[in-house]
Amino acid sequence: MSGRAIRRCLVALSAWAAASSLTAAPGPNASRTQILFLGTAGGPPLRFDRSEPSTLLIVNGREYLIDCGIGTTRRLVEAGIDSSQIRTIFFTHLHADHDMGLADVMANDFFEGGGAGTAGPFDIYGPPQTKQLVDAGFQFISVGFRPFAAAPPTAYRIRGGSFVSPFVAHEIDHDGLVFDDGNVRVIAAENSHYVMIPAATRPQFKTYSYRVETADGVIVFSGDTGPSGSIGAIAKGADVLITEASYRDTQDLDESISARAARNHWSPVVTKRFRDHFVHEHLDTAEIGQLAATARARAVILYHYDPADEADRAAYVSGVKKNFAGPVFAPGDLDRLCLSSGVLAACGSARR
């Protein structure tokens, strides 16, 4: 084996070890801030081993859900977490792969006591149209609860012939501080995930990155974004940058686009439009590494990605490390990381 081949193998082995370390951490720890990955894949399509984007932030025992893709409720059950204990949900944006799991969560919350007034309120924050999403979700789940309420006596709260919703929508229409409960502060910044939407209609389609400040450190959720200035500003000095990694590099993107175009019989115009979406409205690993280095983030976590195997997962990590010297984590669903005094590390099993 040549010296170059040996060096390539060593780099891949090192990256694999970094990517795989999440499941190898020993024992519990007492960190007050934990990050539990419920869904780490972007969509569509649905995948067997990864649910769609959803992350649970646990700070001093209080839980905050960021995005709610398909599979969120199942992952919560597998992690031993009751969704009705999560009183605060944030949406980065309202693409289907980030919000289609909300109805499942709402149904479980309503069943577990929300309908009887023993749980809630449940506060749901997101961009314009979040209220429409929440109202539609509640109307959808209500159909399945009507037969229960029709058999008296009923514990469900009903007003004017309709269930009383315990879900409260809060629409975010500006950058800056959007939430502060004394436990965490959340700062929003509109990013560049929607830059290809015509300017005339873009105000009704906002997409945000969130900077979450905790006593243990600063965590930034990129959401879906292109390499915009806003994500760089909000990530400045972050202890943890949780960022989408929609494709590994140009070769990875071209192979993916070609396969989709052939499968769906796309015209060249449609194929180019789809490729432009990824180039301008998503991030690859080199861009992630540059972003983290420029922002002087301390650690990077990848999500919203779909590596083909362990070698591919290691390649994602290696791609970031070309431009970023800090630790890079590549979690799977139900992996859990802990933040203490600004230092990020694996914290063992995802189960309580």
Q: Keywords for this structure?
A:
single chain; 352 residues; alpha/beta; Metallo-beta-lactamase, Chain A; eight-stranded mixed β-sheet; seven-stranded mixed β-sheet; 10 helices; 33% helix; 22% strand; globular; disordered N terminus
Helix content: 25-40%
CATH architecture descriptor:
4-Layer Sandwich
Are there runs of 5+ residues with pLDDT below 50, and where?
A: 1-21, 23-29
Radius of gyration: 21 Å
CATH superfamily: Ribonuclease Z/Hydroxyacylglutathione hydrolase-like
What structural category characterises the helix and strand content? alpha/beta
Arithmetic mean of pLDDT: 88
**Number of helices in the DSSP assignment:** 10
Shape category: globular
**CATH class division:** Alpha Beta
Number of domains: 1
How would a crystallographer describe the biggest sheet? 8 strands, mixed
Task: Provide the spatial order of strands within the biggest beta sheet.
Answer: 8-5-4-3-2-1-16-17
Q: How far is the N terminus from the C terminus?
A: 46 Å
Task: Determine the oligomeric state from the structure.
Answer: single chain
Strand percentage, roughly? 15-25%
Q: Encode the helix/strand succession as letters.
A: HEEEHEHHEHEEEEEEEHEHHHEHEEE
The name of the CATH topology is Metallo-beta-lactamase, Chain A
Please tally the β strands and state the result: 17
